[in-house]
């Protein structure tokens, strides 16, 4: 995918990596008074990436579905981590719905299982 809504694919990947770092590393340093500060920042970045992918025109159907499913999964985990369980469940259900047609593909099977187990 050469571009996604005017942003190059490397820029989209960088936003995604930044969100993962905020969620996995920086959140451990959040003060007790704001325990989810980094998680909320990560969520905002993931939403930006989701918008960029929604506007993407290039890429095969399966590739776009997997990319969107990964975002839904990450958003679901983020909501669960911030104790917003019903919102997390909605994202995880969207993840499995996007992957359903491709669930037996080697690129999808692990994510599909993880989303169902969460």
Query: What structural category arises from helix and sheet content?
Result: mainly alpha
In helices, the fraction of residues equals 55-70%
Strand order of the largest sheet: 1-2
Q: pLDDT under 50 segments (min length 5)?
A: 1-5
One letter per element, helices H and strands E, the order comes to: EEHHHHH
Describe the structure.
Helix content is 67%, strand content 3%. The protein is mostly helical. It has one domain (3-117). Strand 1 and strand 2 (7-8) form a beta hairpin. Helix 2 (37-54) runs antiparallel to helix 3 and helix 4 (85-99) packs antiparallel against helix 5. Residues 1-5 have low confidence and may be disordered.
What labels describe this entry?
118 residues, mainly alpha, disordered N terminus, 67% helix
Please provide a brief summary of the model:
With 118 residues, the chain is mostly helical. The protein has helices at residues 9-24, 37-54, 61-81, 85-99, 109-117; strands at residues 3-4, 7-8. It has one domain (3-117).
Write the layout of secondary structure elements.
Layout: E1 3-4, E2 7-8, H1 9-24, H2 37-54, H3 61-81, H4 85-99, H5 109-117
Antiparallel strand pairs: 1-2
Helix pairs in contact: 1-2, 2-3, 3-4, 4-5
């Amino acid at each position: 995918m050469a571009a996604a809504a005017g942003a190059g694919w490397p820029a989209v990947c960088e936003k995604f990596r930044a969100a993962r770092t905020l969620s996995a590393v920086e959140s451990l340093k959040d003060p007790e008074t704001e325990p989810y500060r980094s998680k909320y920042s990560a969520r905002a970045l993931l939403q930006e990436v989701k918008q960029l992918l929604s506007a993407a025109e290039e890429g095969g159907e399966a590739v776009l579905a997997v990319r969107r499913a990964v975002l839904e999964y990450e958003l679901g985990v983020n909501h669960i981590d911030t104790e917003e369980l019903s919102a997390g469940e909605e994202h995880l259900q969207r993840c499995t719905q996007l992957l359903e047609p491709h669930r037996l593909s080697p690129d999808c099977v692990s994510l599909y299982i993880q989303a169902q187990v969460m």
